[in-house]
Amino acid sequence: MTPPVASAFTEQPLPSWRRAVLKVGSSLLAADGGGLSPRFALGLAQFVSANVQQGREVVIVSSGAVAAGRAILPRHVEADAALAARQALAALGQAQLIGLWQRFFERPVAQVLLTHDDLRNRRRYLNARATLNELLALGALPVVNENDTVSVDELKLGDNDNLAAIVAALVDADVLFIATDIDGLFTADPRRDPAAQPLNQVVELTDAVMAMAGGSGSAVGTGGMRTKLEAARRAGAAGIDTVLFNGRDGEVVRALAQGRLFGTRVHAGQNKLAARKYWLRNAPLADGAICVDAGAATALVSKGASLLPGGITAVSGGFRRGDMVEVHGSDGAVLAKGVSQYAAVDIARIAGHHTRDIHTVLGYHYGHSVIHRDDLVLL
């Protein structure tokens, strides 16, 4: 018999998932005397390992570099120190942070440092996605953090919650897990209002629900419940559910590994496919188009295939890798639009070639497809 969990939240099943992003904040990693502590990280690592053993994939978005750096800097730096000093702390603490996670796993842990600018720029976005997907395919555990040593606004805002939501969309995750230091979302801050009631599920993130979020509850963390709800809203726009739970409660974390949630589930409101296709249909087009032969047109329209270079007959315009372009049939009709993995100048060189020849022709390659089926919508 499964032992009961002492929680203000009632048990509910987790949404079905194959790939997830787990966001872990500084309040779960920082030691009381400075530096990092494995106290709560161990349980979260066991949650990750249990799911990986079941064939699932997890990307960790982890804060804690500044807290780690503060413990090893020769002189004490206050939490509200100047930005440059905090960036120095982050640089010192990154190795400590990755070392903390590596100690829990037999598989290799890969450090991935990103800024929001990396993810706003479409070409860098595609490069980041390709790298993370390759790391997962290799069996590594990606640990993502903001590149705090070079970012400015991001570090000042402490926006790793929203970074986690962006990463969840980046890797096409099914769910975003946010480990926090309280049990979930309440109607008010439970540490200040004893009448606050737990919210097991949030179907829609209305203004009233957003107003329930308080500020940061930790001296080492910079994000509060509001940034977590903002992250849930961002993830929901990509069709991804968000789960908020208490990462300090060992029983709650163990239950989570069994598919049992004691916390708040924020529903996306639409599925991932619908969200993705909506974005693809409405994203602005770059100048230019790709023309394909009858065989490629049939594969795209009837078989849901990716666009390969062998079926391309011509390319026009000066678009770049990551731009949204139209795909035309041999009669000039618009068949589809999608995100091109290659620039127009490169497509002109590989058009008509087999995928295995891409590297030989260009000297590099970004994958076998010119437009992947996940980045393409029929018109």
Structure, described:
The protein is of the alpha/beta class and 379 residues long. The chain has 2 domains: 12-271, Acetylglutamate kinase-like (Carbamate kinase), CATH 3.40.1160.10; 283-378, PUA domain (Archaeosine Trna-guanine Transglycosylase, Chain: A, domain 4). The protein is built from 14 helices and 15 strands. It has helices at residues 41-53, 65-72, 83-102, 116-120, 122-137, 153-157, 160-170, 207-211, 225-237, 250-257, 272-282, 294-303, 344-350, 358-362, and strands at 12-13, 19-24, 57-62, 109-114, 141-146, 175-180, 201-202, 241-246, 260-261, 263-266, 289-292, 312-316, 324-328, 334-339, 376-378. The chain has an 8-stranded mixed beta sheet, with helices on both faces. Strand 13 and strand 14 (334-339) form a beta hairpin. Helix 7 packs parallel to helix 9 (225-237). InterPro entries: AceGlu_kinase-like_sf, Asp/Glu/Uridylate_kinase, G5K_ProB, Glu/AcGlu_kinase, Glu_5kinase, Glu_5kinase/COase_Synthase, Glutamate_5-kinase_CS, PUA. ATP binds at residues 23, 180-181, 222-228.
**At the first level of CATH, what is the class of the largest domain?**
Alpha Beta
The helix content is 25-40%
The Rg value, from CA coordinates, equals 23 Å
Q: How many alpha or pi helices?
A: 14
- In CATH, the homologous superfamily of the largest domain goes by the name Acetylglutamate kinase-like
- Strand sequence of the main sheet, in spatial order? 4-5-3-2-6-8-10-7
The CATH architecture of the largest domain is 3-Layer(aba) Sandwich
Uncertain stretches: 154-158, 217-223
Q: State the distance separating the first and last CA atoms.
A: 53 Å
Q: Shape, please?
A: globular
- CATH topology (level 3) name of the largest domain: Carbamate kinase
Q: What portion of residues belong to β-strands? A: 15-25%
